[in-house]
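Researcher: We are triaging several targets before committing to wet-lab work. For this one, the compound of interest is CJ6. I'm pasting the protein sequence and the ligand SMILES. What I need is the predicted three-dimensional arrangement of the protein with the ligand bound, expressed as structure tokens, so it can go straight into our comparison scripts without reformatting.
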Amino acid sequence: MAHRLYTLVFPMDEQNDRVLLGMKKRGFGRDKLNGFGGKVEANETITKGAERELTEESGLVTKSIKQCGLLLFYFEKDPVAMEVHVFLVDRYEGAAVETDEMRPQWFGIRDMPFERMWADDSHWWPYVLRGQKFVGQFWFKADQVTFTQHTLRAVDSL
Ligand SMILES: CN1CCN(c2cc(NC3CC3)nc(N)n2)CC1
């Protein structure tokens, strides 16, 4: 199956155990809270694409980034899967600003608003909290709201 590459970036304020989420204002995932991200372009690495999207969508400039997970999403009737590379940014410069894409908001990492996020998030976020790298697959229905099957496992390296 063909995969399209995407990034998903969570800025962490480790001192206060908080994570920056954005309320998506348009496009795919509109009206959901999520990390920052987008498509990876042909002329950039996945990590550089993650850093670019974070700055474009939140104004934050990455100083330290690490990949923490890999998520594969399949949708009924759609031949192309989404391959989402998940990153944590534990050092950054600047203050979060609202952009055309995202309205930023800080949340406690153990107080996540899962009811306003994608349905898969509550399943893999515990791995982030445990510092465990993860690989997950989710098979979504055409409504892109619910998934019917999923696999999720901790991995030593991505
Ligand atoms: C560029 N974006 C980044 C975020 N992303 C997704 C997807 C997702 N679930 C899939 C059913 C849609 N879950 C989260 N948390 N993020 C899609 C691509």
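Researcher: Any quick observations?
Model: Residues 6, 8, 29, 34, 37-38, 73, 82, 84, 118, 120-121, 140, 144 surround CJ6 (CB under 6 Å).
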